[in-house]
Amino acid sequence: MTDSATTHAPGRPGGDDRYKWTALTNTTAAVFMSALDGSIVLIALPAIFRGVHLDPLAPGNIAYLLWMIMGYRLVQAVLVVTVGRLGDMYGRVRIYNSGFAVFTFASILLSFDPFDGGHGAMWLIAWRVLQAVGGSMLTANSAAILTDAFPAEQRGFALGINQVAGLGGMFIGLVAGGLLSAWDWRAVFWVNVPVGVFFTLWAYRTLRETGKRGGGRIDWWGNITFAVGLSAVLIAVTFGLQPYGGHTMGWTNPLVDALIACGLLLLAAFVVIENRVAAPMIQLGLFRLRAFAFGNLAGLAISIGRGGMQFVLIIWLQGIWLPLHGYDYSDTPLWAGIFMLPLTAGFLAAGPVSGYLSDRIGSRGLATGGALLFGGSFLGLMLVPIDFSYWIFAVLIALNGIASGMFASPNSSSIMGSVPAPSRGVASGMRATFQNSGTAVSIGVFFSLMIAGLASNLPHTLTSGLRQQGVPAHVAAQVGGLPPVSSLFAAQLGVNPVQHLLRPSGALTHLTAAQQQALTGREFFPTLIAGPFHSGLVVVFAFGAALAFLAALASLLRGTSPAARTPEPREAATGDPHTRPDRYPSG
Questions:
Q1: How many other CB atoms sit within 10 Å of the CB of residue 452?
Q2: Tens of pLDDT along 277-330?
Q3: CA-based angle 452:455:460, to the nearest 5?
Q4: What is the tens place of the pLDDT at every residue in 180-227?
Q5: Which pTM value belongs to this model?
Q6: Which of 379, 393, 426 is nearest to 226 (CA)?
Q7: 3-state secondary structure 232-253
Q8: Any idea what DSSP says for residue 319?
Q9: How far is it, in rounded angstroms, from Cα 209 to Cα 198?
Q10: CB-hemisphere CA count at 13 Å for 307?
Q11: Nearest-5° angle of CA 438, CA 444, CA 445?
């Protein structure tokens, strides 16, 4: 690969070995922290809800839980392209450093909550939104900073380390959330403060611009239509998971339909605008590059599969497998994170190695093989019984982690190496948008498939099981008729839903001691939900496998990595790489 931007004159920062490792260390810490905060809350949610004195299974409180999870990812999906473009215009390091400061400031505000109940939840959601703004500024520009700092022959390794840190942070957050919340729920936010302060100061002292700024203007109409359109679609997905009327989900809600329709119209208008303005927010001409277009398509498919799988595995462990194997409900969130460590270990082992190899043998073979192995692990999980032998489960999720590592680093290297140097900030933002949007959409898609599978069998199964243990028919019917999403979230939050749902009616006090013990024990709910849940798992994993094989096909079609185009004379003179977006080669 040849790239004029990677040839540094002597004495320039980009050619300084010490500087490039400084840039790698700082940006790796940044993407790790940003990703960690995307997942650390998942395991800490039970402690957070207890800390703000909020009943997570009350009908109106499911929305708080969803927004605690989705709000952070939604903001990152929407903003990364915009802040990546700002990095191209005003300096990637400048935007990156500001992002570290914003992220740290929001972490400080999250570390204390002066309110209780719904107001306490809204405080946390609001400051997590600001934290996601800072995280977007970090992730959108980190890959561009590394691509500027490292020569082409080391770029895959550097981006691989960065990718491993990002996705590794997402997995490690599952364990860290359980450990820290066992001490104090605020500790999941405290952990960012000293790290954030140190790396913010270090970034301001050591990082400096090594790439050329593109100049130009902000595409306001493009930014508005993209942000509002994508937000509308992702908000609709969030509302679609909540019960509506007599339905188990909200996809029949007119508000959801209106949000999706308006969001898609705005995104269509965004494409039209980007083809007409002189300095577009997204350089649609980049999609003429095969490595860029097919690399992002493959990355989107893998992100959808990976994000949804993570939630499904947590629920599988917390709601069924761990209680059946003697773990108390209050302990299942922490142990679910621990038992998923093979997934993290596989990824951490494969990511740096694949990044190193992609610099020597190319990206296409590694990324395509990783996507195929990713799909194969889904097929293996489809065949695992609901009450599995752990070593089989551990091997399969380790293979899934290895597959993710094989894919992530080479795919990022191929995408970033295919674009011209002045466009790396916006290209990095576009890559992150596909990844974050895929993760956010995956939650809606996988949960919808799972809830649909549960809705057909769970109400009858739960009602019959309760009546067999002596629960009055009207109470059993009432509990059995509750939306399946409540049972899913109960499992995720480490709550025994049967005890929780029967307590308000007082039905437990009228049963024998043996019946009470059976209903509130570890095995009753997992045994009831196992059959319907496994039916949903098969559908979910089949969908994940299909996405993985689509990613493998897209990765194969990317071709050999082309050399990034050197800016033409007119662009070099104006400093605006967006002057002629139609000049990008097709690859």
A1: 16
A2: 877 777 788 888 888 999 999 999 998 888 778 778 888 887 789 888 988 877
A3: 160
A4: 877 888 888 888 888 888 988 998 999 887 766 655 677 788 888 988
A5: 0.77
A6: 426
A7: HHHHHHHHHCCCECCECCCCCC
A8: I
A9: 20
A10: 26
A11: 80
